[in-house]
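Aim 2 progress update. The chain analyzed this quarter is reproduced below.
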Amino acid sequence: MGPLSGQGTIWLALLIAAPLAAALLSVVSGRYARPVALASIALMLSLSGILVTLVAQGPLRIAVGGWSAPLGIALAADGLSAGFVAVTAVVMGIVMLSALPQFAPRGDGETGESRAGYAFWPLAFFLWAALNAIFLSGDLFNLYVALELLTLAAIGLVAIEGKAETIAAALRYALFALFGSLAYLLGAVFLYAAYGTLDMALLAEIAEADGATIAAGALMTAGLAAKTALFPFHAWLPPAHSGAPAPASAILSGLVPKASFYIAVRLWFDVLPGAAGEIMPVVLGALGTLAIVYGSLLAMRQERLKLIVAYSTVAQIGYLFLIFPLAGGSADPQPWAAGAWTGAMFHAFSHAAAKASMFLSAGLFLHAVGHDRIDGLKGIARHMPMTAFAFALASVTLMGLPPSGGFTAKYLLLTASFAGGQEIWSAAMILGGLMAALYLFRPLGRAFSRAGEGAARPAPVSRLLQLAPLALACLSILIGIASAGPYDFLQIGRPVSAEEGLE
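Predicted structure tokens:
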């Protein structure tokens, strides 16, 4: 990556500074918090669009303050990081717009001075800043700092309503996050002790596949797996995501796990591709497979819609980690690795939009009927057709059916699996798709069933509010329909290990 000269250097920094400023402004703006939030969302969408335009011309790398690594802080952007920034902007923007009626700013609406109405906006903008910092940072320690800010903001969103069960879920999340933070930080310390730098570009040039480096990578990966809620570190996710308010759940499930997964991908494909060996990719693939099966089985057993969607997240995270066995474990070139790498990113993008749509839909159902029990949603599609259709479109993505982004992702992953002679991972993906169809058919069947005895009699819900989950669900489908553009964009600055595989 070459340095970005001239006025263009400001855009990478603004993508982190702007949401931080918005978070601080939302604390002190009082009854003007609504226009501050709207202006900030518009600004962040514009900045993300500018970044995509710049990266389309080639990868970017800047030294903040003019201090080059290892002394300075490096920010970098390529097709992968810019893609995550853009998806984050769209999902965060739509979710936060849908949250305006529920979390009315102070002095505006019924929420008044409530804790939730006061805290949601700064927490959401802090989380947005942390996500962008993770996607743009070129230093492993700065990634740690951003990851901690992300975790603190996410914990605050889980407990924002102050209910006993959500506070307990937030505490459980904090304990898992603490383990993840300590493991990641210890691994980073090992790397710094061995090489005297944590700049990813420098480490990629000098890191060796010795015992200390492999141990450091293993520790960092374990910490990231805990923060991503990869099986068996998933226990915090369902109560945290299902107990939070719908807009918070949409952000937590759609975006937060992707950040730690993104770091894991950068760690192994950009920094330590030669240290992966044969065991690590298989272990991560096995944990991903167990996540798919276990999360799907538990989703089938749930009677509440938000819990079904939450356990579905546990299962869908498993697909992401199949990237490691499909693109690693051999010293020989693996031409199918590029398909596996790109397929995992397509899954991350489409899942972010689909899962945010599902949680917003579940929140609207809950608002309309007063609960989210499956048996109480009979015939609700007749009263809320836009929301029910949005949930159905998002389900198409999670099941991996055409023409969704989920289908494109699983097609690329399956192709890589068959090309590499690793049919066991193909079986896991096919089984996961069938199980997803089973646990999603229950709420869909109830929602689209004929109204009759026991049918839901919901309160009216604004059609404007129902546009938010529909827009996100359509985005998850559009990623598949217009897949050529995102596919080509992801190849900008793609690491060599994503083309030839991990060693």
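The longest strand covers residues 60-64. The beta strands are 60-64, 73-77. These observations will guide the mutagenesis experiments scheduled for the next reporting period.
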